[in-house]
């Protein structure tokens, strides 16, 4: 880390620059190590902040968390979900409130929409993997890029010049930061989480995972990185939806169908969770945007398949099967999203492309069978 990088970290941690956690948030963290905390104590603490209590109940009653009838009290929420789950959910709301929501002409709405999808993806992924506390994964996913707004908050206009934007990939942001500042926002994020005294498992969200270290990376780090890739695939222009399927299979053994379910759950559950977290999000718009991205990816991959198979050669059957698997994975996601928007105008183009895909696969399969 350069001298400038160290100075920037100290600048962020300096009094007045780093948002202070509320006294309730601090107590929520302390409760993690206190085995004697009771349901009534936790409920009483959260109820001291009526705004926090209201938003927590909205979150608990959202489609992502709902378990049966509507929950009308914090005490009931604790009884249903458990002490630790409610504590972590309340902490996630408090942390979101502590971070910048605007400034510098940057698209903070995109930052928070992406963060929310990352959080939901991490939570559902943790549950699918049988991790002991999916709610911790929700917080870890939410704060994975916590360093970005905190970094931008303390940079001068000259220092911030050339920042790629929230819509760019992690790689683009980190490359710019090291060239311009000598420190990246993940290094800064780790310093902030340590300063705030957040649990070590949440620090794993700040790891950048090169391929050479995947086998030794902690489960939470791998999960948050997967959630980051998936959320990037929704909104970053150059991010690849197909890459999500590849990483899901390599890291966790998930099929394309299982990965698609995680992606769909995030997109279809985000609206109610966003309302509880006070994040401005248009669920229908986001589903439509990802559907269109899936459609375009299918068009490009189908054209590539046809072009390569025309070249001939002994490996055509194997090449076709590989293309078919990739296309069916993308098609499965597109179908789920189109069903969610059933009757909406933006589904027509996707449905037409899916029909063309089915026809192309059937024709090529038949032609290859004749030549066999």
Automatic annotation (TrEMBL):
SUPFAM superfamilies found in the cross-reference section: HD-domain/PDEase-like
InterPro entries, per the entry: HDOD, RNase_Y/CdgJ
Domain called HDOD: residue spans: 18-212
The protein's name: Signal transduction protein
